[in-house]
Design brief:
about 260 residues, single chain, nine-stranded mixed beta sheet, about 30% helix
């Protein structure tokens, strides 16, 4: 059917308001999901990892791949910085806090713990706790002060067999079951509140098992725990672990 130029212009002019509204709706949708800016990640650690295993520290091992991830900005922090690297201004510039701690839980100032907990509960901050960070003050406060300890543990460098329990969960997107050649062992019962999701389960040759990837919604915020990450073995360089950490960042930030 032939359409002359005058008819085409009239049709186009009538369609402009519809096009403008559609564009505005798409922009509002992106804004509502926070997709208009990168996810601001702060990686916190005690700074005690052996340099023979992690030459740039635990935070450095995580910061490298995350810093190369699209839509992610990374900052690093440690307990020995002023205000334990958790000043109000630093936390206000953070969307997801990755926490690695083991030996110095009690040295984290209580007011900085409360600053983290309040922001998580308000939905301003997501928390991703790794390895023995289940015993950290912020994680335990968000878990209603439960012990958050495994039933037993063993540090012998044996393989860890990780099974994806929830393949549909955003944290396990693109991940199949895998083996970590050297790890340590945690076993059930793992004394935490009932999780919203169990995304990973780990097993060892002697038959021990533990829920090794867990998530919770705490008020308006999101909390994830990934068990693996011993400082004694280069686990955080494992490609599947790196992908899971990246996926967990997006989930904790309400981006997936």
């Amino acid at each position: 059917m032939h359409v002359d130029r005058r008819s085409f212009v009239r049709t186009l002019m009538h369609s402009i308001p519809t096009i403008a509204v559609a564009r505005a709706l798409r922009a509002d949708d992106r804004s509502s999901k926070g997709a208009s800016r990168p996810i601001r990640v702060r990686i916190w650690s005690e700074g005690l990892a052996a340099r023979s295993v992690y030459p740039d520290g635990i935070d450095g091992a995580l910061a490298g791949p995350l810093g190369r991830t699209a839509d992610v900005e990374v900052a690093r922090a440690s307990l020995d910085q002023p205000e334990a690297g958790l000043s109000n201004s630093a936390l206000d510039a953070t969307d997801v806090l990755i926490w690695w701690g083991r030996y110095r839980h009690d040295e984290v100032p209580d007011d900085r713990v409360e600053a983290v907990v309040e922001r998580v509960r308000a939905g301003k901050l997501g928390l991703l706790a790794l390895y023995t960070s289940c015993g950290s003050k912020p994680f335990r406060r968000l878990m209603n002060s439960m012990p958050c300890e495994p039933g037993s543990w063993r540090e012998d460098g044996k393989p860890e067999f990780v099974t994806v329990r929830s393949p549909e969960h955003p944290i396990t997107r693109g991940i199949g079951s895998f083996t970590i050649p050297q790890s340590d062992m945690f076993s059930e019962p793992f004394a935490v509140p009932e999780p919203e999701s169990v995304v990973l389960v780990s097993n060892w040759e002697r038959g021990e098992t533990v829920r090794s990837g867990l998530t919770w919604s705490v008020d308006k915020g999101r909390v994830a725990y990934l068990r693996t990450g011993s400082e004694s073995y280069p686990i955080l360089f494992h490609p599947s672990i790196r992908q899971i950490v990246s996926n967990a960042v997006f989930w904790c930030a309400h981006r997936s």
